[in-house]
Write a structure and sequence with these properties.
This protein has six helices and five strands. The chain is α+β, with helices and mostly antiparallel strands. The protein has a single domain, classed as Winged helix-like DNA-binding domain superfamily/Winged helix DNA-binding domain (Arc Repressor Mutant, subunit A, Orthogonal Bundle), CATH 1.10.10.
Length: about 110
């Protein structure tokens, strides 16, 4: 299995974060991961507001979030566990993620977001 790409914090680009959070489904997925305070598995994140996201779409959403530097994915057996990188992103771009979450009406009291 090939390794997952996770950009270093100094390589994060605001345009990648803005693109990743331009999709309402990705915002909902990210808010769930960030609000959980712990890892979220892909299968646990596939149900958004009563609508099930197909595996292929969910995989693509996770890849975009991961490559933008918003989450970190770790393989544990057959499960993929996802962790928020909010604290790191907040340190690099203060207020960016909170502003985007507020624009979508999402809570901003998640780990690492002021």
């Amino acid at each position: 299995m090939r390794p997952l790409f996770h950009p270093a914090i100094e390589d994060l680009k605001p345009e990648a974060i803005l693109y990743a959070l331009s999709d309402p489904e990705r915002v909902a997925i990210f808010a769930q991961i960030a609000g959980a305070g712990s890892s979220g598995t892909c299968s646990a994140l596939s149900n958004l507001g009563g609508r099930v996201i197909p595996k292929s779409s969910l995989s693509q959403h996770m890849k975009v979030l991961r490559e933008a530097g918003l989450i970190r994915g770790e393989r544990h057996g057959i499960e993929m566990r996802n962790h928020s990188r909010c604290a790191e992103v907040e340190e690099r771009f203060p207020g960016l993620v909170a502003a985007i979450l507020r624009a979508y009406g999402r809570p901003t009291d998640v780990a690492g977001v002021d």
